[in-house]
Structure prediction request, 243 residues.
Amino acid sequence: MSITSRITQIYLYLARHRAILTKSNMSHSIVIPHATYSPWIDDAAFSAAFEAIRKNTLVDIYRAYELWSLVRETSHLGGDILEVGVWRGGTGCLIAERAKQLKPAATVFLCDTFKGVVKASDKDSHYSGGEHADTSVDIVRQLAASRQLANIELLEGIFPDATSDRIKDRQFSLCHIDVDVYESAKQIAEWVWPRLASGGIIVYDDYGFQACEGITNLVNQRLQGQGARVIHNLNGHAVIVKL
Prediction:
């Protein structure tokens, strides 16, 4: 048996037999889909962009490729693109690079405190506030400049509290929420929803992860809502499509 086959066996065993039940009664295990189609391997533009930003993101290639793809899927819609929770700018610049190719008139607004996670509460299983503060506006600007991305605008401060007035009259086709905690994500989603085009998409980065059960609960509450379709991707994303 090859080393690769043996490793796969081990992971499959863990996935089937090592489920974790957390305090919030949510089950977690290692998720290993059996699918093998990997279009990101053949997408030269994506590969180049991801290689350039990979040190500036904690998002894996699977979620990064989905963001890249969703820019295409929403490119026919009017409006701009919003990301809240930028950290060092990796996914924001990836999105902006794809938008530059397909939606050159759009502005990609990147919003962050650049001082770490805010609005953590008892609804969150891991975060207490201030995590991921190891970043700065300059780090993001340098990455954007290195990729020649003039379609980015940075909004520094708590969103929507401090910076949303600057874009309150904009419409959006895509919103990437990567803020890790319930209350922050809830307020962002409530702000952007009436400004989201019909057919527009909200992506929650943190839906499928044990450390972010506040986000999982928040999205699950939308399952009973009207006017939207909620899709759980096994890469960890939740994708919300506005009808």
